[in-house]
Design a protein that fits this description.
Elements (H helix, E strand, L loop, with lengths): L15 E4 L5 E5 L3 E8 L2 E6 L5 H16 L9 H17 L5 H24 L34 H14 L2 H20 L29 H22 L5 H12 L3 H6 L5 E2 L4 E4 L7 E4 L2 H13 L15 H11 L6 H14 L4 H7 L7 H7 L4 H8 L6
Antiparallel strand pairs: 1-2, 2-3, 3-4, 5-6, 6-7
Length: 401
């Protein structure tokens, strides 16, 4: 008999854990607070579920068990170790045909962009968006090594750190680039779990979410008259460049027309060959694309351009259609000369789609001509409108009396 427990004035109810009818769920009495309890690698783990309600405790228990049992023996490591292994796996995936070369190169570029933003953010405390404007981000041309991100310890990655990085990425890059970088970062963390550097249930990306792209605005696209002026200006400047440099710079005007008449991405236009033209069936095929190869009919202006180029090259040209790989500079200077907003290669793709829709080509058809494979969903979001000029002309034909 414990005399001390019967002594007047002494507290007889000491805290103790009491089992419930639910495995791994115990209650601490007399506080009546529920705890989760289980063994991990032979060690007893017990943690408060921070509730006195039995139903709430049951609902919390399952998530707690997943979390605590998912904590494998994570060892310390740096992001550099993950990055090196990640690059090797990308190369293996490319060699086995699981991913395309362009996909691997894009992911490697995302790694560099992550490193560049990380270094600027955690060195200076902020990111200057001017360093990432058009022409400012030359990571594909320079061999600068951003080592700070590679030196980051895995254990230093917290929700707050990732939120700061995501916000900085949004300042530096477009939503699509940010989302691509987030996908790569997520794959790195998944690899970290596989290599035993992270808990299985780390939830670091749980609340971040992808960035919603802004609605594409096409009000800067040239009118038909401005387009003609641009074409003439580019041909004039290209001819001058060819006379001075003698390196086939006169191709710039033809590439400008080709992008506008075909709606092709610049990467596809760079790789298109004369062998891709099916003159008999009136089709042009694109083999180097963002996703899958596709083909388009030879629209009248496109066919006239190709026939003119064919005649200029002796009637039986072979190999790549264009010598120049970019018209970014001549396009920018031509836009300034004719007084129209600056355009990019991709804007000519938008111009192609917009002109087709304005001339009553249905959006699913335009979508196929652009190489989309979603039945027109993306094209409907991007081009499901009419330009002001076309809308006003259409409105004149509407009568109610």
């Amino acid at each position: 008999m414990n005399v001390a427990n019967n002594t007047p004035g002494k507290k007889t109810d000491s805290p103790r854990f009491v089992k419930t009818n639910i495995p791994n769920l115990v209650k601490l009495e007399p506080m009546n607070t529920y705890y989760g309890r289980c063994k991990v690698h032979g060690k007893l783990v017990r943690q408060s579920l921070e509730t006195k309600d039995f139903k709430v405790a049951k609902s919390k228990l399952h998530k707690w068990l997943i979390d605590v049992r998912g904590r494998i023996n994570a060892h310390e490591g740096s992001m550099g170790v993950l990055i090196e292994d990640y690059k090797k796996r990308l190369k293996l995936a490319e060699n086995s045909g699981d991913i395309r070369k362009r996909t691997r190169e894009t992911k490697i570029q995302c790694l560099t962009q992550i490193g560049k933003v990380w270094e600027e953010l955690f060195t200076t405390g902020q990111v200057n968006p001017q360093h990432y404007k058009r022409g400012g981000d030359q990571i594909h041309r320079t061999k600068v090594q951003y080592t700070l991100f590679s030196q980051v310890r895995i254990s230093a990655l917290t929700q707050k750190v990732l939120e700061e990085w995501r916000a900085a990425m949004c300042l530096a890059y477009s939503p699509s680039r940010v989302n691509g970088a987030m996908t790569v970062f997520g794959e790195l963390l998944k690899l970290g779990v596989e290599m035993g550097m992270l808990y299985q249930n780390h939830n670091l990306f749980e609340k971040l979410g992808y960035v919603r792209p802004a609605k594409t605005k096409l009000t800067h696209l040239p009118t038909a008259e401005k387009f003609k002026a641009l074409k003439a200006e580019i041909y004039t400047r290209a001819a001058k460049g060819a006379a001075v440099f003698r390196k086939g710079r006169d191709d710039s005007g033809r590439l400008f027309e080709f992008l506008a008449y075909s709606g092709a991405r610049i990467a596809s236009a760079r790789s298109v060959k004369w062998e891709d033209v099916d003159w008999q069936h009136n089709f042009l095929s694109f083999e180097v694309t963002k996703r899958e190869p596709y083909r388009i009919p030879l629209l009248p202006d496109l066919k006239n351009l190709l026939e003119r180029m064919k005649a200029e090259q002796g009637g039986t040209p072979k190999g790549n259609m264009f010598k120049v790989k970019s018209i970014k500079r001549v396009l920018l200077s031509a836009c300034r000369a004719v007084g129209t907003p600056s355009l990019t290669h991709h804007d000519l793709r938008h111009y192609f789609a917009t002109r087709c829709i304005e001339q009553n080509i249905d959006i699913p058809t335009v979508s196929r001509w652009l190489g989309h494979q979603d039945g027109g969903a993306l094209a409907m979001k991007t081009y499901g409108h009419l330009r002001d000029e076309h809308s006003q002309e259409s409105a004149k034909r509407v009568h109610f009396n």
